[in-house]
């Protein structure tokens, strides 16, 4: 019985060592494979820049790769070039703010974000665009500030209220989402997507039907007849 028990224990330990060994060796291999793919992608992007240097999306994508790698100096270098070619590139602006946060410089991140918001403070559409870019980078606080500024600038904009509604809905704050969706729908009831969201939130709404065009007027069937000419006397 003891011999059998020793065999079972020994087998279990071997299996455990095998699993641990696999884990210890597989993780570096996965990391190496990911890095290899990333390096290939960087090379391809640099080749594109060799063909056309004035290419903001490629500079941005290359900056994102270096950002993900933790090479913040190179990331900032490519972000700055992208902004040099397109100063209104909202996705790059948001990435630049995130870069400062990742570097641990919250003060600079706030300063950079404020400068971008100031540039578009009077244009609600651009505030929404910048806010959306912040959302993509996971910078919810900055996104909400953009949307709040948009509400101050254009409180009666159905588009702004709709965007704020989706912001809260995506964070499962359904009461706030409902409030802004209702406001948006009141301002513009011709929004099927907002009506759908309100329906899912338990608010019954009715989308106005498109007016039926009036039929064209019937042609006048009455023919005008000329008086018959009198015969010559």
Q: Descriptors for this entry?
A:
elongated; mainly alpha; disordered N terminus; 233 residues
Taking the alpha carbons of the first and last residues, their distance comes to 148 Å
Q: Give me the strand/helix succession.
A: HHHHHHHHHH
Shape: elongated
Number of strands: 0
Secondary-structure content class: mainly alpha
Assess the beta-strand content as a share of residues. Answer: under 5%
Query: Mean pLDDT, as a whole number?
Result: 85
**Uncertain segments of ≥5 residues (pLDDT<50)?**
1-26
Q: Could you give a short account of the major beta sheet?
A: none
Instruction: Give the fraction of residues assigned to helices.
Output: over 70%
Number of helices: 10
Q: Radius of gyration from the CA trace?
A: 32 Å
